[in-house]
């Protein structure tokens, strides 16, 4: 299994809603990532988890709250989002050792629309 | 600090023609360089990467790229384009050191169109 599975594929939410994005991998990877990709823009890193601990937070607003319950799962909890948060949210994973030539495996993303 | 510049947001070629997608980088430390491809409504897939060693790197689907330190470039090429190569291509850089693995900085992307 070499897939990163993201659910849901599409999500529409209001600014007062609370929702969660889910990501799952069964490749034994120990590093997992959230990227945000606005339309016609490159992906931008949001968070990195290494061995279930948050290792990088790219100054993301607190209305985005990541969670890594175990080595296979990564969640992104959303609360009080703004319309400008509408984007494709990509999850990725990698082996997680210290070598920097790691290959990232990306999921297909969740297309989020905030109304 | 690091950055990536992809020259040309759109490139159009005929099927069977040479594909050349340009990437220049800026990095304060030795870089690791990557090319990713993204098909519509999909995530990104790694085409190839340069870390150390041989500067000509071969990837999947017949693509290759050459790291030229003197020119700070990492251009992507394919001798003969196929219709299935139509997609968006991203060049990315990460620092070769520290604990910043996965901390990729992407270029703006180049959309490749292949005409019959």
Short description:
With 115 residues, chain A is mostly beta strands. Chain A has strands spanning 4-7, 10-13, 18-25, 31-37, 44-50, 53-57, 64-70, 73-79, 87-94, 105-106, 110-114.
Topology overview:
The complex is a heterodimer of chains A (115) and B (116).
Chain A: E1 4-7, E2 10-13, E3 18-25, E4 31-37, E5 44-50, E6 53-57, E7 64-70, E8 73-79, E9 87-94, E10 105-106, E11 110-114
Chain B: E1 2-7, E2 10-14, E3 19-27, E4 31-38, E5 44-50, E6 56-58, E7 64-68, E8 73-78, E9 87-95, E10 105-106, E11 110-115
Parallel strand pairs in B: 2-11
Antiparallel strand pairs in B: 1-3, 3-8, 4-5, 4-9, 6-7, 7-8, 9-10, 9-11
Description:
The complex is a heterodimer of chains A (115) and B (116). Chain A is mainly beta and 115 residues long. Helix content of chain A is 0%, strand content 56%. In chain A, strands 2, 4, 5, 6, 9, 10 and 11 form a seven-stranded mixed sheet that branches. Chain A has a four-stranded antiparallel sheet with strand order 1-3-8-7, with no helix packed on it. In chain A, a hairpin with a 2-residue loop joins strand 7 (64-70) and strand 8. The radius of gyration of chain A is 13 Å and the shape is globular. The mean pLDDT of chain A is 91. In chain B, strand 6 (56-58) and strand 7 (64-68) form a beta hairpin. Chain B starts with a strand and ends with a strand. The A-B interface holds A 4, 31, 33, 40-45, 48, 50, 55-56, 90, 92, 94, 96, 98-104, 106-109, 111 and B 32, 41-46, 49, 51, 90, 94-97, 99-104, 106-109.
How many extended strands of chain B?
11
Strand count, sense and barrel status of the largest sheet of chain B are: 6 strands, mixed
Label the structural class of chain B.
Answer: mainly beta
Taking Cα atoms only, what radius of gyration of chain A do you get, to the nearest Å? 13 Å
Extract low-pLDDT stretches of chain A: none
The secondary-structure element order of chain B is EEEEEEEEEEE
* Broad structural category of chain A: mainly beta
Please report the number of helical segments of chain A: 0
Q: Spell the H/E element sequence of chain A.
A: EEEEEEEEEEE
Number of strands of chain A: 11
Helix content of chain B: under 10%
Main sheet characteristics of chain A: 7 strands, mixed
Distance between the termini of chain B: 41 Å
């Amino acid at each position: 299994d070499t897939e990163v599975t993201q659910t849901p594929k599409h999500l529409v939410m209001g600014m007062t809603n609370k929702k969660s994005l889910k990501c799952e991998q069964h490749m034994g990877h120990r590093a997992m990532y959230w990227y945000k990709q606005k339309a016609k823009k490159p992906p931008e890193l949001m968070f990195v988890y290494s061995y279930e601990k948050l290792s990088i937070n790219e100054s993301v607003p607190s209305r985005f709250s990541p969670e890594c319950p175990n080595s296979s799962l990564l969640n992104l909890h959303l609360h009080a989002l703004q319309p400008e948060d509408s984007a494709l949210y990509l999850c990725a994973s990698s082996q997680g050792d210290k070598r920097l030539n790691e290959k990232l495996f990306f999921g297909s993303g969740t297309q989020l629309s905030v109304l | 600090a690091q950055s990536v510049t992809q020259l040309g947001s759109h490139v159009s070629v005929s099927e069977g023609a040479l594909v050349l997608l340009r990437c220049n980088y800026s990095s304060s430390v030795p870089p690791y360089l990557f090319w990713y491809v993204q098909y519509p409504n999909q995530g990104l897939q790694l085409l190839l990467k340069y870390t150390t060693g041989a500067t000509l790197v071969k990837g999947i689907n017949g693509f290759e790229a050459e790291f030229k330190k003197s020119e700070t470039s990492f251009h992507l090429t394919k001798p003969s384009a196929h219709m299935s190569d139509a997609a968006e291509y991203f060049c990315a850089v990460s620092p070769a050191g520290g604990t910043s693995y996965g901390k990729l900085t992407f270029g703006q992307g180049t959309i490749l169109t292949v005409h019959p």
